[in-house]
Amino acid sequence: MYKEYKQLNLSQIGKDILDFWKKQNIFEKSINSRPANNPYTFYEGPPSANGMPGIHHVMARSIKDIFCRYKTLKGYQVKRKGGWDTHGLPIELGVEKTLGITKDDIGKKISIEDYNEACKKEVMKFTDVWNDLTEKMGYWVDLSDPYITYKNEYIETLWWILKELYNKGMLYKGYTVQPYSPKSGTGLSSHELNQPGTYKMVKDTTVVAQFHLKNDQEHPLMPLLFETPTEDTVILAWTTTPWTLPSNCALAVGEDIDYVKIKTFNPYTFKPVSVILARDLVTKYFKADGENASFEDYVENDKVIPWKVAATFKGSDLLGLRYHQLMPYVTNDDLEKNAFRVIPADFVTTEDGTGIVHTASVFGADDFRACKENGVPSVMVLDETGKEVPLVNKQGRFVDEVTDYAGLYVKAEYYSKEEREAPGFRETDVMIAIKLKEDNKAFDVKKYEHSYPHSWRTDEPILYYPLDSWFIRTTAVKDKLVALNKTINWKPESTGTGRFGNWLENLVDWNLSRSRFWGTPLPIWRAPWSTIGEDSVDLCIGSQSELMNYGEEFVSRYFDIEKVKSDIRNHSDVFFKKYNTIFGDNDTKSLGETFEDAYFNAMIEHGESFRQQMKKAVDKGEFGFDEFKRLVLNLKVDPAFEDFLKEYSEILSDYYTNHVIDLHRPYVDNIVIIKYKPFGNKTIYFREPDLIDVWFDSGAMPYAQWHFPFENKEEFKNAYPADFIAEGVDQTRGWFFTLHAIAVMLSETSDEIKAVNKEVGNKGIAFKNVVSNGLVLDKKRQ
Hints:
Layout: H1 10-24, H2 26-32, H3 55-73, E1 81-84, H4 89-99, H5 112-123, H6 127-136, E2 142-148, H7 152-167, E3 171-181, E4 186-187, H8 190-193, E5 199-212, H9 222-225, E6 233-239, E7 250-253, E8 258-265, E9 272-278, H10 282-285, E10 308-314, H11 315-318, H12 333-338, E11 341-344, E12 356-359, H13 365-373, E13 381-382, E14 388-389, H14 417-421, H15 428-438, E15 442-453, E16 463-472, H16 478-485, E17 489-491, H17 493-505, E18 510-511, E19 513-514, E20 524-526, E21 538-540, H18 544-548, E22 554-559, H19 561-579, H20 592-595, H21 598-603, H22 610-619, H23 625-635, H24 641-648, E23 649-651, H25 652-658, E24 671-676, E25 682-687, E26 691-692, H26 694-699, H27 701-704, H28 713-718, E27 725-728, H29 735-749, H30 751-760, E28 769-773
């Protein structure tokens, strides 16, 4: 019965066994020989096939295989459907490296269509290597019909889930400060920022800046703060990010914190100065033997600088004090009237710094909230479209208005290694610190080691940046997430109660938006506020059929944008004579007066006509989504608009009769939904250009792997929830979280899921048992 081996040749034995399994279909028989009414469901976390498998995959798969084989031996039918994670940043970065481009080149040097086609090819680059590893290590998983996250069927289920959430008010758009990766060009969710290893110890240049109080203001503290007309009184505020100082708009204090005014000398300019800081932090900046020392005997560069306490007050007493703008590169009447003043904030402490927080509202979530609550405007500039933007662009460089540092990266890590090692290179923070010293605006400058978040994909420091993002209101189900987590069997238990449980207790809403190109498009079509009347501003699409036919009054059309661009480029006179009859060729009137939309108002530049602007955008390769939207909205009031539609677009259902459906960009971006209303009025909906977080893709696999609810309803019901999952501890705030979050939210929002949960006795979880294993790295730390 058993083969006798004369000598031990493990390599050959392994090959013989694998050959036997394959010829005899042993894996298939291990499933088919067990009764279907006794299932044990295992979910395979999808790997990305554009990267090489590592030793940690072998370890994790061994753990999965042990449990699945054990349950098979116990008489369970253990199906193991494989899958591939095919979207997201790793694929995009790989393609950009191969093509020698950056994100900014997409849509200019390479079309979105060609770029995404390159991503699709990159996706399965190492499939053969993965399959070979899977087979050789004896890991049993069904790869004959894997779920693939870029397939239309998979994406359609994701859209259905988002529609279920949207219908219950759990999907919303907000303008907030979010973690942002300049190299990736996209925002990051809180669970991405909490992946293992994202927080790294760094040494940064820190500055305690002097914010000079105005001596001509009206305030109850003025007699204490300015004892003589020439006294220079400043507020001290500490920052580990000096690059944010040009954007300072307020100083935050704790209302119940005790503060002091200290008379002393500036250690760099040696000028007399009176400084305000928290009483508990005085010893951090002043030596004991300098207290009440002789001011008259002080000489420049003395090691001991004399100081004395001149006044004490509560933080609440300081509120409303006004100071001179620290670095006045950008200002305006609104800023002068409402910014550069002391405000209260609940996040101010005396654990470090000066007990006073420099707030640059666009570069910190707490700063943003505090300034908004106190009516403090942000320091912003207008971009070429008239939109307000921060003093640092999305590439991480200062804008031109910050003249001393225009074009410089705010983080040294954004430069190449060669640039950093070039003679004379200086970090921007260092240059700012030097300038502040020279201008008598710095009280203390030093290196400081602290923990700082990095992008888990690109390994460079992130910025906190203001973004228009779509969010899932996960906080609405926080209590249920916490409660149901306690019903899951975690191994080790401490991961579920500690790392995962603590994460849920401090949950924030899920930042869903990603400003990228290769991924699941956000299925939201939105109309400009000024054009909707009583219509809904948003349409959330939950299926392919709904995309083609949203309702009786709606028509979905597919635009040939390349043809539009070609005709504007080559025949602009003919195009605008035919389709711009209302405003004329040379019109410089603000279209905003017609549409009540500030966007159009700002676009009328330098006396250029609408036609000239469109032609220039096409010729410069900058005719993108915003320009297309603007063109359509301008022409919709033109008598020839229907002719324009017939010439440059097709009804979507007709288009799909002759073309393959692809739910990726740029194809979905070309789809415009028009609502026809009485008296010739129309509301036009354009897709929101964002993609969704790739973690949503993987977290939705229990449903999307079956294309639920569009088909395979029985298969889904029989495999939900999972009896067992297993992945590395790095997935605690990744796949484990997204599985759990989506399952709990659907248990509250979806009638279909509620019905399945009731039938199978599920309270709302995606998995019953989970093994979270440790990590092991190879010599390449992979």
